[in-house]
Write the structure tokens for this entry.
Amino acid sequence: MTSNYNFAFLDENTKRMLRRALLKAVAIPGYQVPFGSREMPLPYGWGTGGIQLTAALLGPDDVLKVIDQGADDTTNAVNIRRFFARVAGVATTERTIEASVIQTRHRIPETPLREDQILVFQVPEPEPLRTLEPREAETRTLHALADYGLMHVKLYEDIAQYGHIATSYDYPVLVDGRFLTSPSPIPKFDNPKLDHSPALMLFGAGREKRLYAIPPYTRVESLAFEDHPFEIQRWEHQCELCGADESYLDEVVVDDLGSRMFVCSDTDYCGQRRAEQAA
Amino acid sequence: MYVAVKGGEQAITRSLQLLAEARRGDLATPELTLDQIRQQLRLGVARVMQEGSLYDEELAAMAIRQAAGDMLEAIFLLRAYRTTLRRFGYTQPLDTNAMRVHRRVSGTFKDVPGGQVLGPTYDYTQRLLEFESAATSEPVEAAEPLPDAMPRVLDLLDAEALIERIDAGTDPEPADLTREPLMFPADRATRLQNLARGDEGFLLGMAYSTQRGYAETHPFAGEIRMGEVDVLICPEELGFTIEIGSITLTECQMINQFHGGNGLPPQFTRGYGLCMGEGERKAMSMALVDRTLRCDELGEPSYAPAQNHEFVLSHSDSVEASGFVQHLKLPHYVDFQAELSLLRTLSAQHAQRARDEEVTTQETSS
């Protein structure tokens, strides 16, 4: 642990500011709370929002897990874990069940989370309406009025044009029947895990200076139409390493002839299944 | 076999070793000293201090060395360090009227009280590469010393009431953008703060666009001055003002034509630019963009990118922009996989439709 810096890098006043903003976020599920995002020693777009939330949450007894694309060993996940090991000296783990705080980019673990766990998402663009309306002043008004017509029209046009809703990740959700919310760029496969989750879900967007929350056991609906219900991705394959047929699969190109193999994106889940099979 | 995501930790360690080696270069060549960077690359140091929002030549020099001369990386290093610094107070507003001027030029009057002072400028160098190392000549004593303070050129117009008056006393307490998020609409003090931290290249491009018809503001360089300004603080426990040092600043005041509107009479208006160290290009760009962003307040038609508050202010910061553009290097294979399966579905549908249509055509033609 590097003693030149305060525990978990940020000073205590900044952590207090973050915790106040987090409390507000939990009190208004799905509402984007502006906060005084700090400049972190990792680049914007690489998890600065998530890192600030994690820094505000961590205590000395916490056990931290960091994943990117579902894997603990991807370079950016490694780097963030190294950062907290260095500036907070907390225990880290790759096991989902052992972690008290899990910071993630682009996935929700396959292993169901518990009430005593917090999932922290890294969010590149907190505003689900941004691609439809670039002006922040305008989107905040639309949220205030719960005017989500733009998004419904977009989804309708997808169906009219392609016969499908052509959004496969960062699929918009309605939190607690009120705020349209970005689940961060997780595949829509993970969206059902947001609904009535026992674990607290926190979202941090550092560059955009917004954070928001989905408190435990909150209703989270993925937008859909009665005649076009929400569906998740399915594979014709099983994981070639552990045989799982209900997990999100990554497609890996294994030679220059275009051969593919499909493996679990969640490396801990896959590893545990293989360990059980071997035992 | 399946190694794609494994070995991240070791790869990072090795990469850091390679980086350290590449940064240092040939060990037979001595390492740059901070004094060399501070003195001989002073304009680079100024830019890093300015956009890094931290006036410390030594730290800026250290950042430039650590970043191997990549200014944006050096700015990022300084910003990240700045986050950890404790605030022990706020200075009094700097008085640039009392600047000890090293350079001061005006494009609006042939001569001004205090004179035109070129100072150390690249403006009239002939941009010929000097193959021999820079010759140092003996310093020459000026015929008469520069006055301690020079009146502002724009104040001359103010006496005639030809230029808008801005009463500093009515300025609201500015927000601190490094502590509070940028919200829209943003007031002028907040906008100026954002521009001051903004990327020089971005502001230069924005300013240039206003000169080429995307929001014409008819600017004149009323005054550009560079020199030292005292920094004063008034500690609560003392109750009186003390000087804690002085910093070099470049200030630019643009004068812009205004034919009246929004209830205001025809008059000249101001665009303002200020930066730490010598940074004339940045200060001038900032002044042009500042004036352009005042379009709503002055009732000017707003159509150009440089007039759009959200467009300019949300994209001016190099640390934000550089991080987000380069985050595309990070793995996105989960999302890419999601897109792949969607595209496969759509493409299969498309092929099916094409086959169906072919069958229908054959049936009708037979």
Summary: Chain B is about 40% helix and 10% strand. The longest strand of chain B covers residues 219-233. Chain B has two domains: 10-82, 96-122+143-168+175-322.
